[in-house]
């Protein structure tokens, strides 16, 4: 029993030294921070979609109002920013999927593994919902985007969807 107590004390000392050196925060803190970053990215993306919708609704012929001269130039830039944000949020989801896969591998060696896929599934579903909303907005304004921008946007949309499905 004394040997066990000595080994335990040594291991606790090493654990304290490692935590002191690396200044690690609890894993739950990192997960919460990651979740907040994802939600913020998703909210920014939804805001962009609402901006695109509002800009589209300002179009010519609405209540006799004339379209603002900035609107045709703003719309492609706004859509490009939204697609960039979509790709950034996709990267966050793919990173979380990769972490889950790695944890699953480590579980084979006895590491603790949380098998609950509900949060990961919720992330993917939220991202796909926003993805389809953005794609609808792009298709609705496809005539205003021009023949060179629309194919590039559609290609980027396909890449986002295919990378999510493949992983």
UniProtKB/TrEMBL annotation:
Domain STAT transcription factor all-alpha positions: 81-140
Keyword set, alphabetical order: SH2 domain
Keyword Metal-binding annotated: no
Domain of life: Eukaryota
Gene3D superfamilies, alphabetized: STAT transcription factor, all-alpha domain
The keyword Cell membrane is annotated on this UniProt entry: no
InterPro entries in UniProt: STAT (IPR001217), STAT_TF_alpha (IPR013800), STAT_TF_CC (IPR015988)
A GO molecular function held by the record: DNA-binding transcription factor activity
BP terms from Gene Ontology: signal transduction
Pfam families membership: STAT_alpha
PANTHER family for this protein: SIGNAL TRANSDUCER AND ACTIVATOR OF TRANSCRIPTION
Name the UniProt record assigns to this protein: STAT6 protein
Gene: Stat6_0
């Amino acid at each position: 029993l004394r040997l066990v107590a000595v080994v335990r004390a040594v291991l606790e000392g090493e654990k304290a030294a490692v935590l002191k050196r690396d200044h690690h925060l609890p894993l739950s803190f990192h997960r919460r921070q990651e979740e907040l970053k994802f939600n913020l990215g998703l909210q920014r993306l939804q805001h962009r979609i609402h901006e695109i919708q509002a800009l589209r609704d300002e179009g010519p012929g609405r209540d006799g109002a004339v379209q603002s001269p900035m609107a045709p130039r703003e719309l492609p830039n706004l859509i490009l920013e939204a697609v960039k944000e979509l790709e950034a949020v996709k990267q966050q989801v793919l990173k979380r999927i990769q972490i889950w896969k790695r944890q699953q591998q480590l579980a084979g060696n006895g590491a603790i593994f949380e098998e609950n896929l509900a949060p990961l599934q919720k992330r993917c579903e939220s991202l796909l919902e926003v993805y389809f909303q953005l794609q609808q907005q792009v298709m609705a304004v496809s005539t205003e985007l021009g023949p060179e921008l629309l194919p590039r946007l559609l290609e980027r949309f396909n890449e986002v969807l295919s990378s999510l499905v493949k992983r």
